[in-house]
Amino acid sequence: MKTHAHIRKVAERYNMVPNVVWTVLNLTPVFIFCYTAIPPEQIGWVLLLSAIAAFLPSHWYKWMQLGNDAAAYRKAGILLIRKYSQDGDFINKLLRRKFPHYKVIRSASEHQRYIQRANMFERFHVAAMAAMLAFAVYALYLQQHAWALVITLNNILYNVYPVWLQQYNRLRLRGIMKRKP
Question: Global pTM?
Answer without folding.
Answer: 0.90
